[in-house]
Amino acid sequence: MSTEHGNNFIQMGQSKRFAISKMERSKVNTKVGGKTDRRNLFFSLPMMNTTAHVMNGQTTDNSFTKQTTLPGMKPVNRKPGSPTEKQDQIIQSSMEEDMDCWEQKIVRMFRIVCLVSVSFLIFACAENKNSLPYYNTPDFTPLFISENDAVKKINHQINDFSFTDQNNQIISQKEVEGKIHVANFFFTSCGLICPRMTNNMKLVQKEFMNDNQVDILSFSVTPWIDDVKKLNEYASLNEITSPTWHLLTGNKSSIYQLARQSYFAEEELGFTKDSTEFLHTEHFLLVDKTKRIRGIYNGTLELDVQQLIADIHSLKKEP
To answer: What is the helix (H) or strand (E) element at residue 16, kind and residue range?
Structure first.
């Protein structure tokens, strides 16, 4: 090749540039790793190398000293201020705009997903407003169902009863009809868990002192010892002052049967026992307005009793 032809070739190589508008670039997709990616458009085009050509082992132009490097491309030498450098800047700017556009789309998609998730949770809560389970068997398997389903599926209720309290008043199921009540079983001479249970039950008394929709029923498991006088003394000694907290005494067999078969006070182990076997349990039982069991708690633990108080507030919100 002659020197004249070589120089012409160099001039042609330096003068040719790829001009492509932003609108045209946006219409072209390239395949990267099997996926379509608009941002790699400019790095897949066979851009001309504007580095000075080497003729006969010597470069024909040593003025190209600035190196421009774009993602996905090999370093290319650019002359400062040249049209090629400006073209690269336009490409880079367009790429950044495309990336910003995708970032905004991702943010919008994330917001939509969050909105849908929150809406689903709200809908689910609306469908099942009852946050507390029902207990239909002495093994205390929780049933999380709606009120409508509970009417059909929950057949266990607290049986009718009639006992005498510390004020010598007859307390029966009529006094708790349509109310929430908490039940426990104790005896006045107990020196182990009963004092702790009584102190914790006083937290419930304090929370609902002036609430006539919440009753506390404490049944004596030694009714032959805990008569009305004994219960009245116990109430005074332990500052039981709420008019809705009743310490109850009566027929031993009736109390034991009510405790084990209605309240499931001793769970499965005590369900089949009779009154000849002594009853002693730390459980507090939460019963709703329709006499269905909604919670069981360890009465010796303050943390459990705090949860009981919170659950009573939840029950009060139910229709």
So the answer is: none
Write down the pTM of the prediction: 0.61
| 134-317: CATH superfamily | Glutaredoxin (3.40.30.10)
Listed range (100-109, 163-172, 302-311) with the worst mean pLDDT:
100-109
Q: Which two tokens stand for residue 270?
A: 């005590």
Which conformational region is residue 166 in: left (phi greater than 0), alpha (psi within -120 to 50 degrees), or beta?
alpha
Tokens of 272: 């089949």
Residue 123, amino acid: F
**What is the number of residues in the chain?**
319
Tens digits of per-residue pLDDT, 207-219? 999 899 999 999 9
CATH 3.40.30.10 residue ranges for the chain: 134-317
With vertex at residue 177, the alpha carbon angle to CA 273 and CA 236, rounded to the nearest 5 degrees, is: 75
Pairing verdict, β 283-287 and 293-298 = antiparallel
Phi, psi of 68 (to 5 degrees): -110, 125
Q: Mind listing the pLDDT tens digit for each residue in 257-280?
A: 999 999 999 886 767 777 789 999
